[in-house]
C-alpha cells in the first residue's frame, strides 16, 4: 500500500483528499503544518508527500527545504491559483510537481501515479546498463547519479529527465517529448515546470571541461545533452 503524507491546514480539503485516496487504496497520514509533517516523516518516511505552501508555524517552502536536506522523496506542492512565484520557487527548491488550488482529486491522483511510476519503476526483470557520459554516471539499478565520482542528489523528476537526455546524447529533445516522457503529461501553455527542473539539473551537473553546459537550450525547440565528442 502506498503511503501518502498530506500537509495542509485546510480541514475541508484535507478531509476530501483523505477520503478520496483511502478509497483508492492509499494509506494517508495528515499533518496540519510543516512541523507536524517533519515529525511524521522522522518516524515513518512516506512514499510521496503533498505539501501546501501556506501553512502555519512552518510553511511549505521551509518544510520542503528541510525534507530535501535529507531525502529525495517525491513531493508535490499545492499552490494558490495563478501564483506563478510560488510554483517557480517550489520547483527551484526541489519539488517534483505542483498543483494549483482548487483542483479535482482525480488530477492529483494522476500526478501522483505518474511520479510514483517513475520513482518505483522495477528494472529487475530487464536490467539495463549504466550510462557514463562526459563525467556523468547514471546507475539505473539503484537510480543514483555521480558527477566525476561524487554522488549527486536528484529528485525523481530530475533523474528521469537526465536519463531521457543521456539516452540520446547530441540529439535535440523537444519540450513536449521531455514533458511526456519524464513528467508523465503533455506540456501546456504557461507551464514552467519542465524549464525549472532543467534549470535545477544544470546547476547540479554543471559544465564540461571546456566550460560549455552539459545541457544546452535549443531556443524554441527544447534541450540537448552534449555529445561525448563535444564534451572534451
Topology, element by element:
Blueprint: E1 3-7, H1 11-23, E2 27-31, H2 34-43, E3 48-52, H3 60-68, E4 75-80, H4 84-92, E5 97-101, H5 105-119, E6 131-133, E7 136-139, E8 144-147, E9 150-152, H6 156-166, E10 173-174, H7 175-183, H8 193-205, E11 215-218, E12 222-225
Parallel strand pairs: 1-2, 1-3, 3-4, 4-5
Antiparallel strand pairs: 6-7, 7-8, 8-9, 10-12, 11-12
Helix pairs in contact: 2-3, 4-8, 6-7, 6-8
Please give the count of helices.
Answer: 8
Cα-atom Rg, whole angstroms?
Answer: 18 Å
- The separation of the N and C termini measures 47 Å
Mean pLDDT: 88
- Which CATH architecture of the largest domain? 3-Layer(aba) Sandwich
- Got a strand count? 12
Q: What composes the largest sheet?
A: 5 strands, parallel
Description:
With 232 residues, this protein is of the alpha/beta class. It folds into 2 domains: 119 residues, Response regulator (Rossmann fold), CATH 3.40.50.2300; 95 residues, Arc Repressor Mutant, subunit A, CATH 1.10.10. The chain has 8 helices and 12 strands. Helix 2 runs parallel beside helix 3, helix 4 runs parallel beside helix 8 and helix 6 crosses helix 8. The N and C termini lie far apart (47 Å).
Amino acid at each position: 500500500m502506498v503511503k501518502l503524507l498530506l500537509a495542509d491546514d485546510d480541514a475541508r480539503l484535507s478531509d476530501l483528499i483523505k477520503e478520496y485516496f483511502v478509497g483508492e487504496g492509499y494509506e494517508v497520514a495528515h499533518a496540519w503544518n510543516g512541523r507536524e509533517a517533519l515529525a511524521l516523516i522522522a518516524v515513518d518516511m512516506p512514499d510521496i508527500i503533498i505539501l501546501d505552501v501556506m501553512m502555519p508555524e512552518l510553511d511549505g517552502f521551509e518544510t520542503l527545504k528541510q525534507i530535501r536536506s535529507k531525502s529525495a522523496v517525491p513531493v508535490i506542492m499545492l499552490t494558490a491559483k495563478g501564483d506563478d512565484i510560488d510554483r517557480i520557487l517550489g520547483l527551484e527548491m526541489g519539488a517534483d510537481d505542483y498543483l494549483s488550488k482548487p483542483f479535482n482529486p482525480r488530477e492529483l491522483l494522476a500526478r501522483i501515479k505518474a511520479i510514483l511510476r517513475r520513482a518505483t519503476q522495477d528494472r529487475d526483470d530487464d536490467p539495463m546498463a549504466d550510462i557514463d557520459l562526459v563525467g556523468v554516471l547514471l546507475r539505473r539499478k539503484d537510480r543514483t547519479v555521480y558527477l566525476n565520482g561524487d554522488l549527486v542528489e536528484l529528485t525523481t523528476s530530475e533523474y528521469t529527465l537526465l536519463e531521457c537526455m543521456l539516452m540520446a546524447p547530441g540529439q535535440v529533445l523537444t519540450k513536449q517529448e521531455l514533458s511526456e516522457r519524464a513528467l508523465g503529461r503533455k506540456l501546456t501553455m504557461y507551464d514552467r515546470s519542465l524549464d525549472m527542473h532543467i534549470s535545477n539539473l544544470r546547476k547540479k551537473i554543471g559544465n564540461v571541461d571546456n566550460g560549455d553546459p552539459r545541457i544546452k537550450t535549443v531556443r524554441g525547440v527544447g534541450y540537448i545533452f552534449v555529445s561525448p565528442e563535444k564534451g572534451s
